[in-house]
Amino acid sequence: MNPDEDGPGSVFEQLWTPYRMAYIRGENKPTGDHDCPFCLIPAMSDEDGLVVARGETVFAVLNLYPYNAGHLMVVPYRHVPDYTDLTVAEVAELGAFTQTAMRTVRAVSGAHGFNIGMNQGSVAGAGIADHLHQHAVPRWGGDTNFMPVLGLTRVLPQVLRETRGLLADAWPATGPAA
């Protein structure tokens, strides 16, 4: 067999990530609030929903398709599509939860930095455009390597349930802004 070909006897190792295919194909993409994952997650147990912390108006949840280990989202309970739809209380708690998410991920994993943001609308890249959510993506020096660039694959060193447990245990019990 030609060693440049991908297959048995190849010089290339393979990293299989079959769970990503569901995301790529858009399977189970919500069509309304009746099947919106961000509306369904709060009714699940924290472990099943990958919920790290719950507040009065928002909750922190691990991204099921993370860009990096510890990729959290802060999500309002209300099914609203746009940042301007949030109440003053929701904006305040979303900000406080984002700060706590950053502190908690830093304490657990030593993240060097973060990408914080939200994509407003499908044209802006929102995967679930009808339910606002803010991403908190931890970053480390050198975390952009050949795998995502050449292999279109991210290497995550931990399963999501383990990450959720570590972050939930480290999340301050005194409230989101602690």
TrEMBL record:
According to its UniProt record, which residues of this chain constitute the active site? Answer: 133
- Which keywords appear in this protein's UniProt record, sorted alphabetically? Hydrolase, Nucleotide-binding
Q: Which residues are noted in the entry as substrate-binding? A: 63, 135
Q: Where is this motif: Histidine triad motif?
A: 131-135
Keyword check for Hydrolase, yes or no: yes
Q: Which Pfam families match?
A: HIT
Residue ranges constituting the HIT domain according to the UniProt record: 37-146
- GO molecular function annotation: hydrolase activity; nucleotide binding
Query: Which superkingdom does the taxonomy of this entry point to?
Result: Bacteria
What InterPro entries does the record tag this protein with? AP-4-A_phosphorylase, FHIT, HIT-like, HIT-like_sf
Q: Which PANTHER family match?
A: AP-4-A PHOSPHORYLASE, HIT FAMILY HYDROLASE
Q: What is this protein called?
A: Diadenosine tetraphosphate (Ap4A) hydrolase
